[in-house]
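tool=predict chain=A
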Amino acid sequence: MSAGVATAPAEPKQGHGVAGAGFTVATTRQSKPGCSRITIYDLIARKKMMKLKIFSLPAYGDEQAEEALNEFMAAESVVHMDRQLIQSGTSSYWSICVGYDQAQAKKDNANSGRIDYRKVLSPTHFREYSALREWRKNVSETENTTLYGVFTNAELAAIVQLPLETVAEIGSVDGVGEIKMERYSQRVFDLLQERRGKTADSDDA
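tool=predict ok
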């Protein structure tokens, strides 16, 4: 998630729109705080009709606003997020632009149910899955983001079942997009490679 600083008078700070023909909210750097790096051409290049929603978080904290953002991030399939600090004295706030694939989120919700991964995964894969969940918890706390903003349980379960000869394989998991690949894939790859290397050494001993 990239950050920037801008100055603007206080104004109504929430809104949303649909990327597509005639949608101009995010086509220029000056158009809307928080969306400065998203252009209509980026959306077309991604070959999907990505929707946008704007959130505002007071610079000095607002638990209700933060919870609203966290709930949205957990419920939707997020493919892009950008933020800017809008400086306006004591009314300064973070403007956060979230791009999401609503159709994918609905599909995920329809297919989701409470899954006991201890029964679904092999013992080895379940140990790896548990290790990744613990890693995800630490990342979530350190980066002040939601658990599912890092990886969902389903994504972690799919990742541990990959042979993982290259980092790029993680991108083949349904729901893992550009942002998750950029931020977390190398760390997950390294963690699993280390664990699998130790397991192999133990088996050879």
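Strands lie at 2-7, 15-18, 51-58, 77-87, 93-101. The helical segments are 40-45, 63-75, 102-111, 117-120, 123-143, 147-150, 153-160, 178-204.
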